[in-house]
Amino acid sequence: MSTQEIVFVTGNSNKLKEVQLLLSSVTNYKLTNNPLDLEEIQDSSLEEIVRKKIQQAVALLPKGTPVFVEDTALGFNALNGLPGAYIKWFVKKMSLDDIVKLLDGFEDHTGEAVTTIAYSDAKGEINIFQGITKGKIVNKRGNLDFGWDSLFEPLAEEGNVESLTYGEMEKEFKNKLSHRGKAFKKFEEFLVKN
User: Fold this and answer.
1) Model-level pTM?
2) pLDDT value at position 35?
3) Which of 78, 79, 150, 171 has its CA 20 to 30 A from that of 66?
4) What InterPro entries does the database record attribute to this sequence (predicted)?
5) Which architecture, in CATH terms, is 4-193?
6) Is 180 one of the annotated binding-site residues?
7) 13 is in an annotated binding site
8) 106-110: long-range contacts (C-beta < 8 A, 24 or more apart)?
9) Is 181 marked within a binding site?
10) Is 184 annotated as a binding residue?
11) 48 is in an annotated binding site
C-alpha cells in the first residue's frame, strides 16, 4: 500500500505535536501541516464550525488533497455548555483564574471537553469525528503551556483515578483519556480502514 500525504490545518504547534503522537500508528498516510489562515467561524455548534473550516481548507489546497481540521470546546454545565466553542477567546482575553471564577456562585463545577474533527478525503467526501471527556473545572494545576489544560480535571469514571488536571498528566496518559485522544482514535480507525 502506498503512503498518501494528509494535511492537518493548524497554526498551533502544541496541537500539531499532540496530533502527531495521536496518529503515529497510521502508516498509510504521511502527516504534514499547513497553517492556512482560515476564517474563524463563530457558532455554538462544533460540527458547523469544523464543516465550514474544512470547506475553506479544501478550497485553498490543491484539488484532491486529503485534509483535516479540528476544533475544541470546553463547556461548563452550570452555564448550559458555555463557553463551549468560544473557550479559545476566553483564554485569550481572560486569565485562567478568571475563567474558573465564572463558576463562583454555582455548586456545579462540572463540564465537558469536546474535540470535533472534519476530514475531507481525496474525493472531497467529508467525515466528522468527535470525542468527549467529562470532568470538572478546578483552580489551575500543572503545566500552563496548553490553553486551559491546567483547569480541566477529567472525572474518575473517565480513567482519572488520581484526580489530575490535563496540565499535570504525562502526554501518553492524557492522550488515552482526553477528548482529543478519543476523537483522534475514531479518526485513526477510519484512516486505517480507508
Assistant:
1) 0.93
2) 93
3) 171
4) ITPase, ITPase-like_fam, RdgB/HAM1
5) Alpha-Beta Complex (3.90)
6) yes
7) yes
8) 106/78, 106/79, 107/78, 108/77, 108/78, 109/76, 109/78, 109/136, 109/137, 109/138, 110/76, 110/77, 110/78, 110/134, 110/135, 110/136, 110/137, 110/155
9) no
10) no
11) no
